[in-house]
Records
---
Amino acid sequence: MSLALVLLAAGAAAATPAHAAPSPPGPGWHLVWADEFNGTGIDLTRWTLADDCWGGGNQERQCYTPRATNAHVAHGQLVITARKQAWRGPTYPQDLRDSAEKAAARAEKPFTSARLSTKGKAAWRYGRVEVRAKLPGGQGSWPAIWMLPAHDRYGHWAASGEIDILETVNLGVPCAGCTAGREDHALGTIHFGGVPPANRHIGSETPIPAPVDGYHVYAVDWAPGAITWSIDGVPYETRHAGEWSTTGSADPLAPFDQPFYLVLNLAIGGGLPESRNGGGVDSSGFPRTMMVDWVHVWQSDAAAAAPAAAQ
C-alpha cells in the first residue's frame, strides 16, 4: 500500500466494551483492517498459522502448530495456548525451506504454541495499529504483538526493520524493581541496522496498568519519521528518524518507510525471558493462554499528502 499517514491521537482505552463498534481516532480516519474474532474459527483469509519448530532464532522452546489446541476462536476471542507437550515438526519456517534438505528437516521441542501473521494477506505503511489483549504470566512466557516488513527492501533482518508493538516476559514472577515486587513491564522496541552482527535495537519498558493480568489496549502510532507506543491510550515512548538507520539506504526514514505485516504469538523460553527474573523456564502452570479480543488498523486521509514510499 502507498498511503502515508500522520501520527494519530491516542485511541480507545482498555475500558472500551468488548466488540463495541470501533471509534475512529479523529476526523478523516478510516478503519482499513480489523478482526473482532466473532466467527466460529480463525479467518484464514486474514491469518496464516505457523507450523515449525524453528524457535524464532532466539532458542525458544516451542514448536508452533496450526492445531486448534494451540489457537482457536471462542466467545469472541482469539485464544493462543502454550502447552507443555513434546512435539516434532518442521525445523524451518516456510520461508526458510529453500532446499530439499531444509524442507525435510524435523526438530522436537518440549512445548507447543501458536504464531499467527498477516504475511502475504495484509500489510500497511504508517497508521495506528492497536490490539486489545490479555497476556499470560509465568517464568519463560514471552507473548508478543509485532510487525515485520512485507518485503526485505533494505536487506535481510534487521536491515529492513522490525517494530515490536508489545512484548512481555515472565509476568507475575518475583521482581525486586517492579510494582508490588512482581514482574509487570511491557516492552516497546524497534530493530534496525544491518544483518547480524550489525543489527541494533532501541526501546523502552513501562509498567502495565493494574490489573497486569487483565485486558489492555497495546498500540503504536506510526508516522513518517516517528513511532509512538501506548497502553490504554497513554503514550510511554516515541522514537524519531535519526535514532534508527539501515545499511540498505541513506534515507533517514528507512527502514520504517515500507509496508509491514502483523504477528501475534506466544513463545516459551528463549534468550530474553530466560535471562531475566528467575531465569530459565518454569515448567509448572501450563497451559498458558494469550487472549486477543480484537485487532484494529487505522489510516488517515492526511496520508495522501505524504510522499509515497518507493516500491
Note: Confidence is low (pLDDT under 50) at residues 1-18.
---
Amino acid sequence: MIVEDIPQVGRLFYKIFRKKAVNSPDTFNDYFEKLFFGSPIYDPQYGSFVHETAGGTISSAVSAIPMQYMVEGEIITARLLCAFMTDPDVSCLGAAELALTMRPRHQDLCFTDSASPVSANHFRAVSGAILPLHGLEWCRVFQPAAYLAQSAAKRSSLVRYAARLPLARPLDYLTRRVMPALHIEGDPVMHDEEMSQDLFVASVQDFLPGYKVRPVWSKPELDWILEVARLNTGNGSLNIRSVWDYNAELTGCFVYFGRPGSIAQVLNIFAKKGKEHAVINQMMYHLDQSGFVAAQGRVQPAQLDVLSRHRAMFYRHRAHVCVSTRHKSVTDAIHRNDIFIGGLAGESWSRLVTDFF
C-alpha cells in the first residue's frame, strides 16, 4: 500500500465496516495516513498490503502498523494487522492472495488482536496460531443499573434517551448498600497518582521482563503510539496512573480511556512480579472512587488469576487474537502464554475502532 491508495482503501473501509457506499472524508484519510504511514519505525516492507484487479481497482486490503518486538533478546519488526477488508462484489481472489502473505514462513511476526471469525479462519488456513485467552474481555461492574443502561443504550435510541435520565443513580445507591461485594476496599499502604508520559515511557519495560516475546517500545515509538492514542477521544481522555507502595516504590501502572460516569476502557495493567494483586486492586479502587460505572479490558493470561478474585466480574469473548511467525521461539512462547499482546500493543487505541461512523 502507498499513500496514494488511501482514498480507495477508505471507500472500501466504509463499505465493509460502516456499511456505507461513500467516499471516505478527508479527516479519515488524514488519520489513516498518520496511523499506517506515520510511525517513526515505518518501512514499506513492514507496512500494509493491497490487492488490485486487472483494471487497477483495489479489491482487498490489510492495514498494518509496524511494531518492534523483543524475541529471545533479538529485536525484530512485527506487523500489527488491523482492518482486513475485501470487496464482496469482486472476486475473492484478492482476499485469498493477501491471506497467503500471512503464512508463517513469510513473517518474522505478524499479529492481530481484533480478528473477526472470517479473519481467524484465514489465519488457521495458513497455519497461524489462535490465542483464545487473549481474546477474552473482563468486565468489573461498580454501578449495575447505570452499567446496564449504558450497555443497552448502544443498541437502542429510546434506551439511549432513557439512559440520560437520573434513574440509575438511586437504584445503584440501594444496590451498593445491600451488596457489599460491589465495593472496592482500598489498601492503606498503596496509592495511585497521575503519571507523566516521560516516566511511563522510561519505566514500562521494568514490568515486562517476564515475557520472552514483548514489545520493545523505544521512546520514539511509544511516544508516537501515545500521541496517536490521545486523538481517540470517543471513549474519553487517555489516562496513565502510577501505583506506589508505602516505601514510595513504583510497583505498577495502568492505562485507560474514560470519563467519570462512563465505562472505563482499560488498555493495559503493568505490575512488578508478585505485585499484581496490589496494582489491580488499586486500579479498581481508583476507578470506583472516580465514579466509573464499570471497567473493562482485555485479558493478559498472567493476570487472569488475580482478576478472577474480584467479585462482580464477568468475561466474554471480544475478538480473535491471531499470530503468524516463522520463529520457533515465538511459537513456543505462545504455547506458554509467554507473549505480550494487547492494549498499546494492539489496535484498541485506534480511532478506527470507535470513530468515523
Note: The chain has a mean pLDDT of 93.
